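Hi team, as promised in this morning's meeting, here are the two structures we talked about. I've kept the exact order from the run log so nobody has to guess. The first one is mostly here for context; it's the second one we should focus on when we meet again. Sequence first, then the predicted structure tokens.
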Amino acid sequence: MFASRVIASKSLARLYSASAAAGVGKVAVVGAAGGIGQPLSMLLKLHVAPDVLSLYDVSPAAPGVAADVSHCNTNGKTIGYSGAGKMDEALKDADIVVIPAGVPRKPGMSRDDLFNTNASIVKSIAEACAKNCPKACFLIISNPVNSTVPIFAEVLRAAGVYDRKRLFGVTSLDVCRANKFVGDVLGVDPAKLDVPVIGGHAGITILPLLSQVPGADKLSAEQIQALTTRIQFGGDEVVKAKDGAGSATLSMAWAGAHFASRVAAALDGKTGIVECTFVENDKTPTKFFATRVELGTEGVKKIHDIGPLSGFEKEGLEKMVPELEGSIQKGVKFVRGA
């Protein structure tokens, strides 16, 4: 058992070292003192190790989080900022900005219920980013991602600094869940799977393409239906299990740090990096859509086609589009005041 734990630890180290970049300048986390922000900041310090890790939160706890994270034994400086007046300084000249800020879900609350509060938070962060680090890559974790990413885009566009190659909705947790749940059913190491998950980041807008997974042809129609539903509503499992004490924070931090490390590696020149992420493009059924994306030194390098779908997946895609389009337009209208 001890040997297996050592192997797992080495595999974890390889996962991040393979994707981390050697020359990342400044990474900023907005919402660093929250349930996602704290473990996310630690993982970024350990596995991306930028020259500067800038941790911001409206909470006065942010400098303490920075002091705590700074003791992790990797290169680079960690600085904490708290209070509304410090956001500009925290963001100034960042290369990557990771944004988990916002209120978490509670039992019975959908991502859409979060909209009014989190939409305003994301809009204010986008305005600060447009002013202080317009050329950064922006990684949006704040829910509902289906609306907050379009909000961010509209704010940057209004400021004349929008580059759609550098704005990402982080949907990596959907992929992590898919790999874990499918791996458990197939009896395969989840770390060896890469299930494509397309669409959005809420409920039925999340569509795992199990037909594209080697070995998944062994699954029955009932298993495919059950796995798809569990992946789509996996966040509800955590919200209910925490019984009002929070949502998926640790797994989201894990997934967010993984995606950030992949972006960092691509910016540093590593090639062949492909991740599912929610981006603006012209190849998918809605203006913003998660699909496999090759990352490069400018952010998005290539957006991959969805690929062949099973009948079940085609039906799921058809059902999701109106809901996803509605969420996107809700974000756009929030900024435009329509």
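And here is the second protein, the one for discussion:
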Amino acid sequence: MSEIKEHERINDILLGPLERPVLKWFAAHMPGWVNPDFLTMIGIIGTIMIFGGYWLSNTSSVFLWVASLGFVVNWFGDSLDGTLARFREIQRPKFGFFIDHVVDAYSQLFVFVGLGMSPYVRFEIASMTLVCYLLVSVLVYIQTSVKGVFQISYGKLGPTEVRVIAIGINTYIFFAGNSIFNLFNFSLSIFEIVCLIIAIALFSIFLSTSIKDGIELYKIDPPKQYN
């Protein structure tokens, strides 16, 4: 199996041409006392803000702005910690890979639980979306171990685009309210519809990619004949 330090990162996201120069600029101008671990903690703080913002939105939609700010803070810490490590050439391949994705798992849990505790998404829909998100995460980690490829984006979409979509929906709900639509005899809010679309897309990615990779790896590593 490939060593973690040798894996190929694929991050061909839609916002990449805008995001990458911004992250490089931040990395080049970051004070010396700011290290990747500090930025990881900033990302965790952003996750707590998202969770709290969605939870408290039961009392006022104003707290959706707290959740949106949390997405920005989370993006800053989560996206910049690895960029800063590579810029300063202070990578810790094994610890960095481990802590980054353990924190990601906790973040996904808190974001979707917080969303499910808000008045805008039913808990079961938020939970289903979380399961699909985690399925794709598991697939990515297996691919990294078996194929040496760390696939961050699929179809030009990655975590950054998901954050932007969430901020956009938060803003829409604050100004226009939580629109309800009747689809196939089900009443769904706009946030629930977006969650279902994301869940279906993620599960489709998991299913199609796992089948494709399974066939490919079967050809590379066929059954051994017993004599």
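Starting points for discussion:
Strands lie at 8-10, 149-151, 180-183, 186-189.
Residues 1-5 have pLDDT under 50 and may be disordered.
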